[in-house]
Amino acid sequence: MWPPTMYGVPYGLRKIVEYIKRRYLNPAIFITENGFGNVRNDSSSWSQIRNDTFRVDYIQSSLHYLAIAMRGGADVRGYFVWSLLDNFEWIYGYTSMFGLYYVDFIDGSLRRYPKLSAHWYRNFLHDDDYGAGVVVNRNEFGVQSLQLQTAHRYPPPYPNHKRHQHTNLTEIE
């Protein structure tokens, strides 16, 4: 999936947020990039490209551990998934895919197609029971704030959780 020098460590998000809380007297924290990439393989099937369950697992688990840090008092005010679209990465160029949406660079059309992770994240933002221990409060401009849910709604820790079964994209569309 990814070069062996990079690993997904969702619990690391909790650890770094808790460290910042202790070391810097709990400042407001905005997580501006958190995601999981895979290597672009032009011989992959359409189904393999769009059914990115590994990305859903990583994001859900990251949010789970972030919610634990928030429950411990960390002042987390924002979270942004990296990235909305597959794009150019400075180190890997167009060979990596971080996006919730696949971009077709092959035929030159640059058409965008939602991956499973885009559907999951949309549902997480719109359905309070779908997420990872976090309630999303919305106003007319979009997401306003995050609040913790009760502890019994947390999914089990990454990577062995089975709380939400991933739907095949062919069943969604």
Describe the overall structure:
The active site is at residue 33. A hairpin with an 8-residue loop joins strand 5 (101-103) and strand 6. This protein has five helices and eight strands, in the order αββααββββαββα. It has one domain (23-172). The longest helix has 19 residues, at 53-71. The two termini are 26 Å apart. The chain is α+β, with helices and mostly antiparallel strands. The strands form four sheets. The chain has a two-stranded parallel sheet. A two-stranded antiparallel ribbon has the order 2-4. Helix 1 (10-23) runs parallel beside helix 3 (53-71).
Number of helices: 5
Which structural class best describes the helix and strand composition? alpha+beta
Mean pLDDT: 75
**Count of spatially separate domains:** 1
Ends apart, CA distance between termini: 26 Å
Number of strands: 8
Q: What portion of residues is helical?
A: 25-40%
What are the secondary-structure elements, in order, as H or E?
HEEHHEEEEHEEH
Radius of gyration over alpha carbons?
17 Å
Strand line-up in the sheet with most strands? 1-3
Query: In percent, how much strand structure appears in the residues?
Result: 15-25%
Q: In this structure, how is the largest beta sheet organized? A: 2 strands, parallel
From the spread of the alpha carbons, the general shape counts as elongated
Q: Could you list the spans in which at least 5 consecutive residues all have pLDDT below 50?
A: 148-173
